[in-house]
Amino acid sequence: MIEKLTTRALNRATLHRQLLLDLVTTPALDVVEHLVGMQAQEPFSPYYGLWSRIRDFRPEELASLLEDRKVVRASLHRATIHLVSAADHGRIEPLLRPFLHRRFASSPFGFVLDGLDSDTFIEAATALAAEKPRTRRELSDRLGARWPDRDATALGYAASYLVPAVQVPPRAVWGKSGPAAWTTASTWLGTAEPATTPEEVVRRYLAAFGPASVRDVQTWAGMTRLKPVVEAMDLRTFTDERGRTLYDVPDGPLPDPDTPAPARFLPEFDNLLLGHDDRTRVISDEDYRRGIVVGGKPTLLVDGFVHGTWKIAGDGLDVELFRPLTSAQKADVSSEGARLLAFAGVTGEVRL
């Protein structure tokens, strides 16, 4: 008989694998690789995501990794900007490239390539990005001059979707600023790691997000047709309270569902909230309907589940709670909030 996992059991398993039960002392690069990338459409979200997972994390560590080209920001999972290690970009990007091309074709800008030879376009866009880092506006202007009968803005979007490209510093470097400028991955990173297999991506996903369903992994990656891949692998199986079949790596840890879960402040679009099709393991259906996940609001976890949102102001931390806290929970949130303010370099109070 297949074991059934309660929502709380899934919560604790996922928090443990996401490094959110206990802070770790693992280097930031290793954490980024363990998580198989971090959502990064907001440039500084990964800093807070790493702070919430790594003990004594300093932003300079990630800033140096970006400037040293050991991690990069690129359109990957779900066609959104992700922070990944340089090695993982080479491993994963080729698998996601067909999806990125399909995603662009179905986007509001896909019309721009109608009747245009895509290979010729990609060659021209690649040459421009390889020459030097360029903003999307610069790509639009150059490509629009090449094809004046086409919508220039759409051509710029086509380049950023269809060319294997990365965003370069000073974009997303802590304490600095800069426009989103793109160059080719091969120009910025040199020789790439060999592409990995769908099986290895599934295995790494389950190690960081599992146990999970086929739809969960497809939602996270933006890939399709993974069911035969998953079903052919040597994986453990469970069911959840909704009757879905869940898969897991053979050695995936399953902590006691009663394991304490400290308060955690997560950045907008943290992959904990985006890494599954069924998100009830971390957020209730009621709270999901508030729009805070797709709307990109930073979230507060209490007892492992989304319990509110937060925002740093010039004079402190404002926390919007969805439900009252116990006195112990309030003390835990206030303590973690004070730690967050110290990390952000803001002097003030935690306002619940």
Automatic annotation (TrEMBL):
<protein>
    <recommendedName>
        <fullName>Winged helix DNA-binding protein</fullName>
    </recommendedName>
</protein>
<dbReference type="Pfam" id="PF06224">
    <property type="entry name" value="AlkZ-like"/>
</dbReference>
<dbReference type="InterPro" id="IPR009351">
    <property type="entry name" value="AlkZ-like"/>
</dbReference>
